[in-house]
């Protein structure tokens, strides 16, 4: 079974670093065209130069509906229909729930949940308008987290936003099931990224890693095979599902 993305265009929100940038390279490596969407345009432009003509960098703030629409406009003008959407933009905020300021809490909800909602909705609107109901080629992947099913201290709202994201994926899948759009959620385990690198480099963070069953963090490219599957024709009959890729961290 081939996971080729030849002839397909995928927009990745939050593509400026971390797993978003890793996803972008994987999509291009599978023969697809990729739209690198993020606020940090200088980073996505550098990544686009690295990838080559199959990549286009566009500015996008996932909390701003007009910014999202403009990014899709630019993508369509350059590459045509956007077949796949990866809602990957996310932020976290650390601290006990009694201490985190409300401005930080709003930022988490606006980026992780509302942002994913708006990006997926814009992608679905355009797919439906382009006739995805006849082609059955729409693919939307929401990037969640294993924290959606774990209890801990210091990330309560982040974890709750990821739990909500998994249910949002099922809701969208049901709503768009007859429009030829598959919606699935990918829940990765702990991966070293810009969000958590300081923590995992700390003494307590190193103890957390040692406490994992395999005593290691997940490699960033460990998600690529499942992502390419969910974006490709191979997943034609898969929608409304949640997939955990975590190297056994949540066992």
Automatic annotation (TrEMBL):
It holds the Pfam family adh_short_C2. Signal peptide: none annotated. Residues 8-193 form the Ketoreductase domain. It comes from the Bacteria. Keywords: Oxidoreductase. InterPro entries: KR_dom, NAD(P)-bd_dom_sf, Sc_DH/Rdtase_CS, SDR_fam. Belongs to the short-chain dehydrogenases/reductases (SDR) family. This is NADP-dependent 3-hydroxy acid dehydrogenase YdfG. It comes from Novosphingobium panipatense. The lineage of its organism: Bacteria, Pseudomonadati, Pseudomonadota, Alphaproteobacteria, Sphingomonadales.
């Amino acid at each position: 079974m081939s996971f080729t993305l030849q002839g397909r265009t995928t927009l990745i929100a939050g593509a400026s670093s971390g797993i978003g940038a890793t996803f972008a390279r994987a999509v291009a490596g599978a023969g697809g065209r990729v739209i690198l969407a993020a606020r940090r345009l200088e980073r996505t432009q550098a990544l686009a130069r690295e990838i080559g003509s199959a990549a286009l960098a566009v500015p996008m703030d996932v909390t701003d509906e007009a910014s999202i629409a403009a990014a899709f406009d630019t993508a369509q003008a350059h590459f045509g229909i956007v077949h796949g959407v990866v809602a990957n933009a996310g932020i976290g905020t650390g601290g006990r729930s009694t201490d985190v300021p409300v401005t930080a809490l709003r930022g988490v909800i606006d980026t992780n949940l509302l942002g994913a909602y708006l990006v997926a909705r814009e992608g679905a609107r355009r797919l439906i308008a382009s006739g995805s109901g006849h082609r059955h080629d729409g693919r939307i992947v929401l990037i969640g987290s294993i924290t959606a099913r774990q209890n801990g201290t210091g990330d309560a709202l982040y974890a709750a936003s990821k739990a909500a994201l998994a249910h949002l994926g099922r809701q969208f899948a049901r709503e768009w099931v007859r429009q030829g759009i598959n919606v699935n959620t990918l829940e990765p385990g702990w991966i070293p990224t810009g969000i958590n690198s300081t923590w995992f480099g700390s003494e307590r963070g190193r103890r957390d890693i040692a406490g994992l069953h395999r005593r290691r963090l997940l490699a960033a490219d460990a998600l690529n095979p499942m992502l390419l599957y969910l974006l490709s024709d191979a997943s034609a009959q898969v929608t409304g599902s949640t997939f955990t890729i975590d190297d056994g961290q949540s066992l």
